[in-house]
Sequence to fold (625 residues):
Amino acid sequence: MASTQGPGRSGETRFAAVLPRERIERDFGTLIAEKRIYGAERNPDVLKKSGSGESFLATAVPPLRRLLAVWDRLFGNRVSPVELLGHLAVEIHGFGHREAILLFTRDRLLYDCQILQGNDAVGHLTLDLYRERDRVVPFLPFPTRPGRRVVYIEGISLTRQSTGYASALFRRYERLFHDLGFHLFRLKASLSVGKYYWAKEGFDCSDREQFRKIRDRLWDLAWRLDLPVAEQEVRRLTHMSDVAAFRRDIQIPAWRDREGYYTLERDDAHPEEFLFPLGKAFLLGSPPWDGHKVIYTDTPRRTALVWSDKYLAHGTPAGHAEGPKRLTALRDAIRREGLLESLIVTEPYLPGMEAIHAIHEPAYLEAFREAAARGDRYFATRDCAIGAGSYEAALLAAGGVMAGIDAVFSGRSDNAFCAVRPPGHHAGRAQAMGFCFVNNVAVGAAYARSAYGIARVCILDWDAHHGNGTQDLFEQDPETLFVSLHEHPSFCYPGTGRRMDRGKGAGTGTTLNVPLLPHAGDREMIDVFEREVVPAIEAFRPELILLSAGFDAHHDDPIADLECTEKAYVHMTLGVLALADRHCGGRVVSVLEGGYRVESFVASAIAHIKTLQGREDTPCSSAGG
Ligand SMILES: [Zn+2]
Fold:
């Protein structure tokens, strides 16, 4: 199986069974009698506690059917009210909970308590548990359906020194809420020392615009202090934990006031000087931000979905096979299937040009940029249609693969699916063709090496068309195994990818082309996958597997003549995951290439994503030992 990192991967599920309704009713009765359940007005202004000991705007206990409805919606009745209170009111580091109560509003539940050390009240804690509502049709206000389950840390305050208490408590809660099927932790990281620690604990900034501003401020700071930091290094930070860990090798001063608040500029109110690593000092001295942490998933594997609306800005003429509709249809299907709540949605970033120049010639990229800026209708060849947004979208597609690689190597996810466009596998060092401009998987392979120090990368390309661009880029490289399954070049674009092409020079033997005759289907595809692809990857022992995941080998696809179905994609995905588990800690970054009939493309991509998540676990035959 995959690596066991992350809260969701280890132990058993303690709340597997649904409790009988009578049990929950009985618990409600007990707690109402003990005065531990109330109703509450849902008004965030009055729900906030002012000072200690003052209660919420509590109201009469709601009718039992409302309590039961909220309980079912939040917990699926997998825990009883008394049990839940027991799990929440834990003693850690000598801190316990007193006066723990549950407050019910129409659609959410609050947990409120005093924090106690010995007999002394030293703080309070309020959690807000609710279920988001997802709009079924994105642009209409209704209908909606239940979305992610969220724990919001409404407030925690402590008057006593508490090193590590909050972290330990919330780690406990993370485990608990994971087992109860919750998806997100939210908090406002407004505490003086909290911002850095929450970031280190994996809380990310909820608002991407706010995150970009934080990143800009970090770059301003590095620039002002004249630190040896390159702008690209800052630009590729995508998560608050990246900021917290940023450039530990550089120390800068921060100044602290009596209450423990830090500032990055010395003044009379902040007399005490400390030296901290750059990212830590920056976060300690930065303004509050709203954070969230993914505590999902109840899927066996955590899968990141790299997505950006900016990929829609690569405009192609109506009737062009490779249009934005592909991605909007996929996005709608992901919502419709209820997958969004279990995917770790990851934003791509514009890469520094050095990352792209590792693969493409600067003059070629510049010509592409100019063509888009000039308003040209296509670049290099007629099938490479472009619009004003195409250059940036192409860079962002490569940056999307980099963000997927970051997610996997940082441990935020086990694997990733990058829903990028334009596709990339036909693009060569200085050549656009076949709807491709920047070779996304190739940029990703180079980036994984430079950023994470790995050597052996396998690129498996199961798009129906030969990945000629990728082959050209790596055919002399013994550290990159390129494997392509495609329709035979005598019958299909781009007319390359014959068996005899096995690599060149030092790279001889690390290119494997497996052409399939027209009308080959699941049986033939799965057969060559098992007989040739699996043993080749097995022998190579990659440290990362990149997939050029095109879905145009589907029998409904208009621009190739293979006859596969979703079954082949599920089978191959399972095989790749098994190989990755054996050799590279489960690290698979799947990158969208082709797939042009929207319905079959979407069905195939959804089956692939579900399999990456571990939802599909029935191999069609013995998947690679
Ligand atoms: Zn293709």
Q: What stands out?
A: The mean pLDDT is 89. The chain has three domains: 21-182, 208-293, 299-612.
